[in-house]
Write a structure and sequence with these properties.
Keywords: DNA-binding, Transcription, Transcription regulation. By secondary structure, this protein is an alpha+beta fold. It has eight helices and seven strands; from the N terminus they run αααββαββαααβββα. The two termini are 44 Å apart.
């Protein structure tokens, strides 16, 4: 006889509590949760404290509600589901322009790099400084910053220093604002993030989504980058994100 799978009881009980909270439109008291999932009250409290500590639940005055970690997990799940439709577009762009292709999104107040399509013939940029700290020096970062409401952009820049990454990096917030205002829907950086490299980006939009598609390539080839190819790919990605919602 084939043995059944080994199951961890505490994990199953915690998941049942999450299901019970998620099924209710209102916060659920601990005693109600204990009865609904058939657990002793002390065990229920122990599991609830753990779930609250990890951010999967919130403790309110009148009971427990789903926490921020659940929302983030749902967002990541939706994105993972749509990546198979996005990646072919990024790879096609990579092969067409012979440069690495990138997708970045604005999420939870930060700019996040979601996917990269590169190859031995089109290597990605060495991301020696994190995306969070270099939006002002990258084409996709500036593209997203330009699409933010002015108060959100000011809040973002107040939390991220305009680090001097190369002699070409913009480190004056007034100069950056001027550049963001006049570049339209296409942004570039010429050796602002890394000497010898350039980047071109344009905006990705869907309901509730702001992002950018970008390509990187040696600065000597910047003039040969096809902006319309980047725009076309951004449109394909935007449509995929709309369908996923």
């Amino acid at each position: 006889m084939t043995a059944g799978p080994t199951l961890i009881g505490s994990v199953r009980r915690a998941l049942h509590l999450l299901d019970a909270v998620g099924a209710s439109e209102r916060p659920v008291p601990a005693k109600v949760l204990a009865r609904s999932v058939g657990l002793p009250l002390p065990t229920t409290y122990h599991l609830l404290r753990t779930l609250v500590h990890e951010g999967y639940l919130r403790k309110l005055d009148d009971g427990y509600a789903l926490g921020g970690q659940v929302s983030e997990l749902c967002q990541r799940t939706s994105l993972h589901a749509v990546l198979p439709r996005i990646r072919p577009a990024l790879r096609a762009l990579r092969d067409e322009v012979r440069g690495a292709a990138y997708l970045s999104l604005y999420s939870d107040g930060d700019i996040k790099l979601i996917d990269i399509a590169d190859s031995a013939a089109a290597p990605s940029v060495d991301l020696w400084v994190g995306v969070h700290e270099s939006a002002h020096a990258t084409a996709f970062g500036k593209c997203i910053l330009s699409g933010l409401a002015s108060e959100h952009r000011r809040e973002y820049l107040s939390r991220h220093r305009l680090a001097d990454l190369t002699p070409n990096t913009i480190t004056d917030s007034r100069v950056l604002e001027q550049k963001l205002a006049r570049c339209g829907d296409v942004f570039s950086d010429r050796e602002e993030y890394l000497l010898g490299m350039a980047c071109v980006a344009t905006t990705v939009r869907a309901p509730g989504v702001l992002g950018a598609v970008a390509i990187s390539l040696p600065v000597r080839r910047l003039g040969s980058a096809r902006v319309e190819s980047v725009r076309r790919t951004a449109c394909r990605v935007s449509r995929a994100l709309v369908v996923a919602q």
